[in-house]
Specification:
The structure is a homodimer of 188-residue chains. Chain A is mainly alpha-helical and 188 residues long. Chain A has a domain of 131 residues: Tetracycline Repressor, domain 2 (Orthogonal Bundle). In chain A, 77% of the residues lie in helices and 0% in strands. Chain A contains nine helices and no strands. The radius of gyration of chain A is 18 Å and the shape is elongated. At the A-B interface, helix 6, helix 7, helix 8 and helix 9 of A face helix 6, helix 7, helix 8 and helix 9 of B. The structure holds a DNA duplex (18 and 18 nucleotides).
Amino acid sequence: MEMRDQILGVAQRLVQQRGFNGFSYADIADEVGIRKASLHHYFPTKTDLAMALIDGFTAQLDSGLRHINESYAQADARLGAYVAIYRDTLEADRMCLGGMLATEAHTLDPVILPGLKRFFARNIEWLTEVLAAGHSQQRFTLTGTASDHARMLLSALQGALLITRATGDREAFNQITALLIAGLSRKG
Amino acid sequence: MEMRDQILGVAQRLVQQRGFNGFSYADIADEVGIRKASLHHYFPTKTDLAMALIDGFTAQLDSGLRHINESYAQADARLGAYVAIYRDTLEADRMCLGGMLATEAHTLDPVILPGLKRFFARNIEWLTEVLAAGHSQQRFTLTGTASDHARMLLSALQGALLITRATGDREAFNQITALLIAGLSRKG
DNA sequence: GTCTATACAGCGATAGAC
DNA sequence: GTCTATCGCTGTATAGAC
């Protein structure tokens, strides 16, 4: 199971940095130190690899969100920790794996799409709960439904990662996230 | 010049739908009806094609923004027309060309990047002006600087396009944009 | 489980005739 | 300006030995 995880780790980084159509089995093989033919023992097709990557990334998300829920009681602290995940992604010169695959969706085997959809649904559900809780606690002021705010926040964070890849302006990322949070603390 | 424009049109659509690494000269050749070798007469390398696409897309943006400025005097109307560009992109099952290339930035020839940066700068500059004008006219309430709001709006729109590619939920896109605009009309 | 060897299709790109 | 032909390389994937 160790080699399988090593492959997944390298492949995940390659997808996040170069896109699913931007790397090959040869790239993975070089890094993990086996021949590319051997990779097919673990992931017969590249589509199999993609599905395993989404499952793994969704598991990482679930684990991260569970950890946030255990570490922070208040909605604004939870949201701040969620934003920090994106900041860490940016610092690692990566896109969100889900966001990267979303842009490439039209080129992917359709069997991959339900898992990708599930990943985004998971994010929106968790954010919706946090926003609704913060609203009840009068820590957040919402202009629309909690679920609409959740989708907007997710969009803005994904988009901020995307744009920073082109502009290279990491300080702008911080200003964007600060503004997003400020927009929730405002008195309506 | 007609064939060149036809090639650019097809290539632009392919980049926006499939990504720069998701199509080949053969795909273009099939659609425009010439052999793929002949494409190299217009664009010797794929990098040349990419640069022409960015230049063309930035020209389309400039033309669109000029048209908005001529058609609408008020900041909120101008912003609404800008959002409509993204809605049209979504309806055409496309990503923004700039956004798509941004995700793939790590796989592109570096000579492409300045043009890509310029495209985003253009968007942010125009948005900043519109937001600052709306603020002066007391049509918009800003929580941060106009330029920060501009970056946030651009991020949210790019991200909304990206997410909708995975979820397929076009109504969510409309709710996100409505919320973005509502957030500006609010009294601070 | 990893290897060598290889199949086979596709890629971007070039040469040279017309 | 478009064609045919082809190069060299890389892509995913398979067969079969060890």
